[in-house]
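Problem 12. The chain below contains 101 residues. Write out its predicted structure in token notation.
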Amino acid sequence: MSEQSDKKPIRQKPGLLTKIKRDQENGARLSIIEELFNDFYMRRHRVYWANFVRGLFFGFGSVLGGTLLVAIAIWIFSQFVHWPGVGDFFQLVTNSLKHKA
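Solution.
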């Protein structure tokens, strides 16, 4: 037998090449996305203004949604007032919320 057949080829981890390939593909995708963004949005102040307005609407929607959820919860609590045992607790919660508001 020759010396070459006795030597085993040096192997790397099986997933290393696939990880490198995936990282290169992800980097290429990110580069393309950045290039498209920079080409599409030539004026940065328009992007900043759009994000500012989006943030305002997101904040307003969050506050409005939270207010509606609390109002619905209070209404549901007020429906349990007449249940024996549980009603006292819900009556206490409802009264404390009414006095604070």
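Discussion. The chain has four helices and no strands. Students who got a different answer should revisit the alignment rule from Section 12.3.
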